[in-house]
Write a sequence for this structure.
């Protein structure tokens, strides 16, 4: 009876610490819902903030949309959702090294895509 009880407790503990279920095909729907939520938040800001935020948000959304789905998934899970590398590897079912590589390359692609926008608006020099 004690073994059964301990096994049950261990199972409950594992379920409590397990990351939530994630299906890569649901990422686009989540991204779209998140984007709509962001747009409604922009409407609540003042006029100047609306213009800047909308412009920046559109640029970032376009840059994210240009990424291939593999890179976009990893970047969104890491930088927006805050998952650890190990959790992302489990969610997308690929090795940890692949997640790290995709994240580094995805961030680099975003940085290159958004560099001109940042220069134009004085966010970086050069």
């Amino acid at each position: 009876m004690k073994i059964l009880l301990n096994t049950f407790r261990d199972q409950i503990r594992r379920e409590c610490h397990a990351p939530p279920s994630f299906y890569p095909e649901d990422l686009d729907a989540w991204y779209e819902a998140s984007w709509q939520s962001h747009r409604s938040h922009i409407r609540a800001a003042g006029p100047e903030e609306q213009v800047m935020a909308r412009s920046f948000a559109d640029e970032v959304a376009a840059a994210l949309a240009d990424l291939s789905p593999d890179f976009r998934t990893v970047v969104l899970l890491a930088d927006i959702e805050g998952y650890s590398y190990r959790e992302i590897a489990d969610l997308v079912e690929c090795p940890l090294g692949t997640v790290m590589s995709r994240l580094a390359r995805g961030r680099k692609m975003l940085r290159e895509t958004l560099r001109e926008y940042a220069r134009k608006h004085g966010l970086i020099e050069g």
Summary: The CA atoms of residues 66 and 72 lie 9 Å apart.
